[in-house]
Amino acid sequence: MERREFMSWAGTGFIAASLPMAIAACSSSTTEKPDAATSTSPEPKADAKPDAAPAAKADADGFIPVGTVADLDKAGFLSDKKFAGGPLIVVRDPQDKATVLALNSTCTHEACAVRWRSEKFACACHGSSFAPDGAVEAGPAEKPLAKFTAKIAGDQVLVKA
């Protein structure tokens, strides 16, 4: 076998071996939707805080602790991607700082993550924005974010699953 023929076969073999990896990298089933972690925005990201402990137990009324009031006030939000009722984000109500609002952090347009930005929720994928209570402010989303019942008990923020 000549050197030129060997190099031709080696190159063909390399390309053939790389093909499955290239196909897998381009498939839509393995591609992640943009979320707050991929945003280039200097604003806080919804997943910047560690998620709440996955083994949090519900109290007698069905409320689950998702973080402390101190953490909420420090970061401006609490986030729990593994919450029993779905991905969760909790913020203080801008109209009543004694009240907390808990919403599903998945955009109703195409299931991308939303993040808290300056008294509203913003979708990283297609630009939808939502009011603090989850109502749609700007599309393309047409449905509001799902709400959870939330409260403050002592130094804990509790959300009902």
TrEMBL record:
Pull one GO CC term from this UniProt entry: membrane
**Cofactor names:** [2Fe-2S] cluster
Any idea which UniProt keywords this protein has? Answer: 2Fe-2S, Disulfide bond, Iron, Iron-sulfur, Metal-binding
Q: Where are the residues of the annotated region Disordered?
A: 30-56
Biased segments, Polar residues type: 30-42
Q: Which domain of life is it from?
A: Bacteria
Q: Does the keyword Electron transport apply?
A: no
Q: Name one GO molecular function term.
A: oxidoreductase activity, acting on paired donors, with incorporation or reduction of molecular oxygen
Rieske domain: which residues? Answer: 82-159
- The name on file for this protein is Rieske (2Fe-2S) protein
- Please give the organism: Romeriopsis navalis LEGE 11480
